[in-house]
Amino acid sequence: MTDGLSPFGADSSIVQYSNGKWTQIDSGGAYQTREFNATVSFSFNGTTITILGTLQPDRLAQTATANSPLIYVLDGEDDHTFLFNASSPTIYSSPRLLQGPHSLAIRLANDNTTFSVSGGSVATAQPESANHRRTIAIVAGTLGGFVVLSLVFVALFLFYRRRRRHSPTLYALGPLQANLPATKEAFTSPKYSNYGLSFTQSTDSVNYLPKPLVKAVTRPSSVPIPGVHDSYTPVVPRAKHKLKPKVKPTPAAPPTRMS
């Protein structure tokens, strides 16, 4: 909320003069007095009040002191919060109060000073404008929505993280298994550079899934397979049969002619 200032004059309806003779200097101007215990009272509705005027001590009573010869009574209690400054036109300024009706009385505490009041101002608390309230509502709604969405995302993240942590694993991979060839032809055929060996990934027996079909892995024979040792029995090559030398047949004797 903001404060609005409402100035008033010395002859305003909120000002009352009592306990002494008060003289108006000019029409609509300041009121002054020099009588002991002369009092001026203010009834106002607001948060603060400021009084303008002058204090002129007699020449014989002038001193170097800056203390005010005035006594201030705010809402029925003495107020010592104001620091008087002889070079300032402000003879009193109240502390900040709650918005509402208040009263102030200023009394002259000696008869060697001419005290005058020229007016002042009252500060009142002004309600915030509709646009300002609408802006605050929009900002508050935006921040509130952002906070809610953040909490939702955090809750979902924690939920899925906890669910994933406590849910069983679909399957667990075991060590690599080597499958020996099923036929002798696959073992000895030059088409299979890895001697017909095939490899499959073993699975955990608890979380077992159907074994996927794995094609035979073919690799150059010169590249060793890590972790796989050849445990086959080498094939003994067949013994070559020596060819017998060909024997030329003995020609038969010509038939004997009968005479």
State the assembly state of the protein chains. single chain
CATH level-two architecture of the domain at 2-126: Sandwich
Q: Please state the overall shape, judged from the principal axes of the Cα atoms.
A: rod-shaped
Return the string of H and E elements.
EEEEEEEEEEEHEHE
| CATH level 4 superfamily of the domain at 2-126 | Galactose-binding domain-like
Question: pLDDT under 50 segments (min length 5)?
Answer: none
> Would you give the CATH topology of the domain at 2-126?
Jelly Rolls
Number of strands: 13
Rg, rounded, reads: 58 Å
The class by helix and strand makeup works out as alpha+beta
N-to-C terminal Cα separation, in Å? 166 Å
Number of helices: 2
Strand content: 25-35%
**Helicity range of the residues?**
10-25%
Mean pLDDT: 77
Biggest pleated-sheet summary: 6 strands, antiparallel
CATH class of the domain at 2-126: Mainly Beta
Transmembrane segments: 136-160
Protein name: Transmembrane protein
Keywords: Membrane, Transmembrane, Transmembrane helix
Organism: Mycena pura
If you had to describe this structure to a student in words, what would you say it looks like?
The structure is a single chain. The chain has 259 residues and is an alpha+beta fold. Among the domains are: 125 residues, Jelly Rolls (Sandwich); 53 residues, no CATH class. 16% of the residues lie in helices and 32% in strands. It contains two helices and 13 strands. The strands form three sheets. Strands 1, 3, 4, 6, 9 and 11 form a six-stranded antiparallel β-sheet that branches. A hairpin with a 2-residue loop joins strand 7 and strand 8. Keywords: Membrane, Transmembrane, Transmembrane helix. This is Transmembrane protein.
